[in-house]
Write a sequence for this structure.
């Protein structure tokens, strides 16, 4: 059993709305320091909304989101980022008016302890070569790497990665898997949204299954094989 | 008498200088509009009124406080920016999620109110504002007479435009502004206080208008209608350059001023409409403007 005090991120009874649409109906889960945890679920289950809610990017939220013991449900997204939470969004969010280097150094340092830029480039050498290219001229895989790379130097210790493998070639997916494992070794805590549970199984410690805006199950990665039929049923694959 | 293409050189260069000066005002004003449109999504129709208020602050400062021209160049932008910040926080910020039209209507209404107040207080005959003594007189260049103040206006405007461009394109703050223009929610989620940045950008944009107003005061005199006379042309400049394009505003502002001046020499009847003719052609061929993205 984990001690609750080790929960870096604790989401309790989270509800969220887009306009009149009620998307999250009481999400409950926690992520412990140094863990890689995934949110698995079908399209429209509420995974991305959960990420955006944690980041303070959804207009109306209720419930509780606690990060390192600080309640963030009423904080604006810039204040949440300053606590040490960073988002790599599903659509990657590379800025076309900025070159690769400018995209890379855009997020401000929010806490000490981030990776030095040289180390970030060691992880993603291709980005150093493409430094002066317009951000959106990069390939899909390179844009994904840039989206992950730029949050590593900020000092954020909680990374929210929203479908980082979506639409990418297998070799790039494998590279991103390697990066996530290295980040875990470096002590980063990662919440990962994935539809590809085969990929998730290679990097995560635990999996929360999300359906209709709430968590319906939690499966430790070590028990994934024995729960595979149940998981496939949840995901409809 | 020296002629170029059958046109007296003094007349040609004189009109080109006038064109350059008009172009300088077009550039500074459209630059502010482009900054504001880019980040706030608001077509700031009160920009002309804020330019006029800048000129009035200079005159009021001189008349009641004894603040000279150089003080006015700092004071007027600060005063207009401060009022702009209040307008942005209390009114414009409510409209960001709505169509551009709502911002345009609100700022159009504000422009009418501001101009109405100044017209009631000071009439429309125009109040002279003396050229500062350091910039009085002129140089005889042989082919034309160059008033020093007019040369100063062109140089000051160029420096302001290039400085603003460098700020936007070459600094970290500029990178935040450009990124926030594309995706403000994501920039805020990186830890940047975007609402404050938006407010300050509006303040800076209208401060540019006020600065132009002070520059204009000794040339055109101080008149409540001086902004409304100019703003339609400035909007045409912004459309031609490309809505939200900083470089587009600067280059197009100066080029169209020169084109207007040249037209005055070649075919004076078309001088007041040539910019709008260019606008129509650009809209038909490249609707996003010469420097705009897309379309």
């Amino acid at each position: 059993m984990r001690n609750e005090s080790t929960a870096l991120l604790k989401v309790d009874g989270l509800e969220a709305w887009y306009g009149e649409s009620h998307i999250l109906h009481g999400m409950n889960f926690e992520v412990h320091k140094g863990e890689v945890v995934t949110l698995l679920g079908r399209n429209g289950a509420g995974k991305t909304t959960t990420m955006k809610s944690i980041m303070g990017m959804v207009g109306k939220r209720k419930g509780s989101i606690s990060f390192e013991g600080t309640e963030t449900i009423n904080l604006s997204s810039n204040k949440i980022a300053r606590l040490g939470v960073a988002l790599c969004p599903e659509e990657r969010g590379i800025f076309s008016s900025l070159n690769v280097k400018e995209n890379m150094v855009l997020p401000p340092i929010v806490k000490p302890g981030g990776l030095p830029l040289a180390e970030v480039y060691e992880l993603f050498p291709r980005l150093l070569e493409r430094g002066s290219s317009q951000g959106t001229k990069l390939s899909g895989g390179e844009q994904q790497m840039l989206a992950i790379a730029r949050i590593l130097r900020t000092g954020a210790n909680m990374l929210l990665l929203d479908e980082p493998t979506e639409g990418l070639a297998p070799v790039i997916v494998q590279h991103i898997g390697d990066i996530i494992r290295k980040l875990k070794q470096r002590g980063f805590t990662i919440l990962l949204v994935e539809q590809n549970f085969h990929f998730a199984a290679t990097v995560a410690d635990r999996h929360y299954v999300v359906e209709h805006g709430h968590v319906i199950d939690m499966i430790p990665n070590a028990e994934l094989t024995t729960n595979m039929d149940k998981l496939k049923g949840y995901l409809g694959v | 008498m020296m002629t170029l293409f059958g046109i007296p050189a003094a007349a040609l260069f004189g009109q080109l200088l006038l064109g350059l000066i008009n172009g300088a005002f077009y550039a500074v004003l459209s630059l502010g509009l482009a900054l504001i449109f880019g980040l706030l999504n608001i077509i700031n129709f009160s920009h002309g009124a804020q330019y006029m208020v800048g000129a009035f602050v200079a005159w009021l400062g001189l008349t009641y406080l004894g603040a000279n021209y150089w003080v006015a160049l700092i004071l007027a932008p600060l005063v207009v920016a401060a009022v702009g910040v209040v307008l942005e926080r209390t009114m414009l910020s409510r409209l960001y999620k709505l169509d551009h039209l709502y911002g345009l209507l609100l700022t159009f209404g504000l422009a009418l109110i501001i101009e109405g107040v100044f017209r009631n207080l000071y009439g429309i005959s125009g109040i002279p504002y003396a050229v500062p003594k350091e910039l009085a007189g002129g140089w005889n260049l042989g082919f034309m007479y160059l008033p020093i103040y007019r040369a100063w206006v062109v140089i000051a405007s160029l420096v302001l435009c290039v400085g603003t461009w460098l700020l936007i394109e070459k600094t970290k703050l500029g990178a935040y502004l450009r990124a926030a223009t594309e995706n403000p929610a994501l920039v805020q989620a990186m830890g940047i206080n975007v609402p404050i940045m938006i407010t300050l950008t509006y303040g800076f944009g209208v401060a540019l208008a006020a600065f132009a107003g002070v520059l204009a005061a000794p040339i055109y005199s101080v008149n409540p209608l001086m902004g409304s006379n100019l703003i339609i042309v400035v909007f045409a400049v912004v459309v031609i350059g490309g809505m939200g394009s900083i470089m587009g505003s600067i280059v197009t502002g100066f080029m169209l001023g020169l084109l207007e001046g040249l037209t005055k020499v070649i075919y004076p009847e078309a001088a007041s409409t040539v910019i709008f003719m260019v606008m129509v052609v650009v809209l038909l061929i490249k609707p996003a403007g010469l420097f705009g993205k897309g379309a």
